[in-house]
Amino acid sequence: MAAKSQPDAPQTKSRDSFANDGAATQGQWGRAWEVDWFSLASVLFLLLLAPFIVYYFIMACDQYGCSLTAPVVDVATGRVHLADIWAKTPAVTKEAAQLYALWVTFQVLLYSALPDFCHKFLPGYVGGVQEGAVTPAGVINKYEINGLQAWLITHLLWFANSHFLSLFSPTIIFDNWIPLLWCANILGYAVSTFAMIKGYFFPTNAKDCKFTGNFFYDYMMGIEFNPRIGKWFDFKLFFNGRPGIVAWTLINLSFAAKQRELYGQVTNAMVLVNVLQAIYVLDFFWNEAWYLKTIDICHDHFGWYLGWGDCVWLPYLYTLQGLYLVYHPVQLSAPHAAGVLLLGLLGYYIFRMANHQKDLFRCTDGRCLIWGRKPRVIECSYTSADGRRHHSKLLVSGFWGVARHLNYTGDLMGSLAYCLACGGGHLLPYFYIIYMTVLLTHRCLRDEHRCASKYGSDWARYTAAVPHRLLPGIF
């Protein structure tokens, strides 16, 4: 599901090759053109299972103290029936519906009606109008990058209410958590369905659409590459970044407020989860312009996978650690807390510096220093669909000489730190590291399949120079 993704292999391009990258073979872009039985089975499996997973985890915390096995045992032994569990699940409420509608409307306004001003006074921050990558049809879309501004305004208002205005309780998100889940599902399915209808009848750019003829695959993986309303409202950028990721840190703050209300204190585990995940979120918004070069924007079409995933999967399953700590407050020993913090910060450092080395290498066409030395490169070439030959360089220095996707490794280290902050009492908070390992490993293999198709024997030389993907000496 939704996740902050990464660009593909570190490379530089000539100006000619950048201008014509959209002419690369269509198979390199996004989802499939034809659907085999395995792809269809996988799509149906996810469409049916993913909503159930979200409900099951949230229900397990609400009714079974976050135990993942107790509901199964109760149903299997006949102590309860599925209808009993469903009957105890809070339904959508008028308050939750109003709250969610207000939240989404506010984020739409911040996204579309308030041009960015942060780039005018924050050194090093890239905001305002920025260009995305070339689409398969050769279009270069422009984006209003203002996610950091939206995050700051939203959180300033949250803290102002918490400390001065008291218009609503800071526990309001937790108190309406399951009713809000139904609202998020309604939006996720509504926007995914609208995106599919739009792709058939009034696409933003018909040349950037893909049709397989299989309803379920097209619904999940999307038809349009960049569905838009008007000039600036881009579905993919909005739903990838707002409202789910802006809400992530607010959700954690509400969980911390609930923990204080219930137990009279906020534990150091809850503080660690809030701090480490806030670093992740702020990094996303600080580098939102860089995000325009990632897989989500450059290769994925907009369908249920991103639409529902960003509305439901991301805010409900990426925040499981904070939710767990409301039900099971954990106070870590000083060494344990220090170890979790160190692991999280080290993971973030590797993730950020690896991406920085790649960006520096690309921006300077390799004329830079990596770890104090001139970078080593693999010269490579590829042929685009129009028959033209292009040249690139693949970086094999710095973090990119240690492993081909060491930025993913740093991401996984940070993910593990969130989970370790919750102790070892339950499996539920560890779902995140399991999911991220599967997701990033799959994304890693997907990157490499595309690069192998693109570069051929040159990619084989690159993998020989950097033999490991994520863990040096292991994988």
Distance between the termini: 23 Å
What strand line-up does the widest sheet have? 1-7-6
Global shape: globular
Biggest sheet features:
3 strands, antiparallel
Give the C-alpha Rg. 23 Å
Structural features:
single chain; 475 residues; mainly alpha; Four Helix Bundle (Hemerythrin (Met), subunit A); 2 domains; 3-stranded antiparallel sheet; two-stranded antiparallel sheet; 7 strands; membrane; 7-dehydrocholesterol reductase activity
Structure description:
This protein is mainly alpha-helical and 475 residues long. It is built from 21 helices and seven strands. Helix 10 (235-241) packs parallel to helix 15 and helix 12 packs parallel to helix 17 (334-363). It starts with 10 loop residues before the first strand and ends in a 10-residue tail after the last helix.
Task: Briefly characterize the structure.
This protein has 475 residues and is mainly α.
Layout of helices and strands, plus pairs?
Layout: E1 11-13, H1 15-19, H2 37-64, H3 70-76, H4 82-87, H5 94-112, E2 128-134, E3 140-145, H6 147-165, H7 172-175, H8 177-201, H9 215-221, E4 228-229, E5 233-234, H10 235-241, H11 244-263, H12 268-286, H13 288-291, H14 295-298, H15 304-317, H16 320-327, H17 334-363, E6 377-383, E7 389-395, H18 399-402, H19 406-420, H20 431-455, H21 457-465
Antiparallel strand pairs: 1-7, 2-3, 4-5, 6-7
